[in-house]
Amino acid sequence: MNKYNSISGFRLQRIEAISDGVFAIALTFLALDLKVPVNTLVHTETDLLHTFLNLAPKLLTYFLSFITMGIYWLAQSTQFHYIEKSDRNLNWINLFFLLAISIMPFTTAFLSEYIHFKFSIFLYWLNLSLLGQILGLNWYYARKHTLIAIEGDEEKTVTKNIKARIIESQTLYTIAALFCFINAYISIGLLVLIQLNYALALLSKRKR
User: What pLDDT, on the 0 to 100 scale, is given for residue 11?
Assistant: First the structure.
């Protein structure tokens, strides 16, 4: 068994291939939770508008999670731009990362269904926390076992930026989640703003 473990998991392309596949499927499953409501009481434009507005929790959480998965897809892609080799352990770290990605449609649907409850926001935050921690572990392991293609000052700079982004994002997610004790929609709204900033790099553009 030890001999087998020492020769398995060296094809880096397999990680990237399955990652793109899981992300694509998870993004598709997000949309499957959006269903046109069948309401026999809709007789006027006002009735239809009220029915549509009732979909607000599902639309809001869908938008949040779509951006979130886009951010983490890009973050993983960024790391693999610098990782040139793989091994069995790095493969499993990324499989657990994909596990956290694949359950996001569930935590999103759970949040949209019970959007006023603190536990649903906690569950969603836990999902975000797992994604950040496993991604941080991915870079830590690759760096420690010399699986990356850069070294010296460039390696230190890239590592500093990756570490800072993960710590910053996890801190902001936690603060936003804690706002659920005031109002659930404020908490989710803050998460949306945080993700929009990361997706569009709004603050970075302002600094430049």
Answer: 83
Domain that holds residue 30: 2-207
Report the distance separating Cα 90 and Cα 95, nearest Å: 9
pLDDT tens-digit readout, 56-115: 899 999 999 999 999 999 999 999 999 999 999 999 999 999 999 999 999 999 999 999
Residue pair 109/144 in contact (Cβ under 8 Å)? The answer is: no
Residue 40 exposed, middle or buried by CB count within 10 Å (0-12, 13-18, 19+): exposed
Q: How many domains does the chain have?
A: 1
Which amino acid is residue 185, in one-letter code? Y
**Residue 62, token pair as written in the block:** 């869908």
3-state secondary structure the chain: CHHHHCCCCCCHHHHHHHHHHHHHHHHHHHHHCCCCCCCCCCCCHHHHHHHHHCCHHHHHHHHHHHHHHHHHHHHHHHHHHHECCCCHHHHHHHHHHHHHHHCHHHHHHHHHHCCCCHHHHHHHHHHHHHHHHHHHHHHHHHHHCCCECCCHHHHHHHHHHHHHHHHHHHHHHHHHHHHHHCCHHHHHHHHHHHHHHHHHCHHHHHHC
* Backbone φ and ψ of 42, nearest 5°: -80, 115
The reported pLDDT for the residue numbered 204 is 63
Q: What is the pLDDT of residue 1?
A: 53
Tens-place pLDDT, residues 14-48: 999 999 999 999 999 999 888 887 777 788 898 88
